[in-house]
Amino acid sequence: MRPRLPISDAASPLSPVSHPATAVAHADGLPAEARLNTPRPLAPRAMAAPMGAHIALPVGAMPAPAAPAQGTAVFAPDRAPDRGHAEPHGGAGDRIDADDRMGDVVLRLLDVVGALCALVLASPVMLLVALAVWLTSPGPVLFAQRRIGRHGQAFFCLKFRTMTVDADAQLRALLDSDAAARAEWQRTQKLRLDPRVSPIGRFLRRTSLDELPQLFNVLAGSMSLVGPRPIVEAEIARYGRHFAVYCQVRPGLTGLWQVQRDGSTSYRRRVAFDVAFARARSPRLYLLIIARTVPAVLTGRGAW
């Protein structure tokens, strides 16, 4: 029986996610660095871990990055190794940098080739979806929302519009008048019974077809095919000190959260998925998540 690493939704006085665990090898094929499970909680251990480095954690160990000092920026240098001491030229730190740069080149190449192939194959479907949105829901076909990307840089994330044009006003009115909806929104940043979503929008969300325009974001370099879910500025506070880890990678069209979630996945656990991916990312993990995205989309698991 293989050991499992826990992930707890319990809050910490330091941050929204105290111990975003990486996980262990599992029968579904995800590598040890990227699997999240929920067995019994373990006490955290103090560890010094290079932010973004490709390392193997011992079973039961939790990364515990130090909180930034007062007055320092929350935007961390991209995948900079925390060596802790000076190293001669050609040391382990330089090898880590070279490996990271090579990994970035390979992943970017996979992004471009994959996005181009997906656009060719999906273009007839995208045209049909655009026509359906235009005919059934007054307003623009595409929706562009300001999201936070790599290095903390903002970009406009594209989607087929699934909501009414006055969605923001409807949300404010609903949260002001409905305590249950307000609690659900604070917990997950989503509403299971969202009155703002149009009938065609519910179908697009359930099938994830609304996210196909993000293939253009991938080609532009603001997103990757695989990565954390792109967040809005209001969600930065919910990441706490782990926002620096989020900024190390491009947000993705799919990711660990999308292929392992269910309808009850909390926001805290979603952050843990993002941190686990950022610290363990590799071409192998990238391809495994792509492979698992297909059945996740077909079954609609956790999508609403």
Structure description:
By secondary structure, the chain is mainly α. It is 41% helix and 7% strand. The chain has 10 helices and 4 strands; from the N terminus they run αββααααβααβααα. The protein has helices at 92-136, 167-177, 179-188, 199-207, 214-220, 236-239, 243-246, 256-260, 267-280, 283-299, and strands at 142-148, 154-160, 224-226, 252-254. The strands form 2 sheets. Strands 1-2 form a two-stranded antiparallel ribbon. A hairpin with a 5-residue loop joins β1 (142-148) and β2 (154-160). It is globular. The protein starts with 91 loop residues before the first helix and ends in a 5-residue tail after the last helix.
**Order of neighbouring strands in the sheet with most strands:** 1-2
- From the N-terminal CA to the C-terminal CA, the straight-line distance is 34 Å
Strand content: 5-15%
Residue share in helix:
40-55%
**Could you say which structural class the secondary elements and strand pairing correspond to?**
mainly alpha
Q: Please state the CA-atom Rg, rounded to the nearest Å.
A: 20 Å
Largest sheet: 2 strands, antiparallel
Oligomer class: single chain
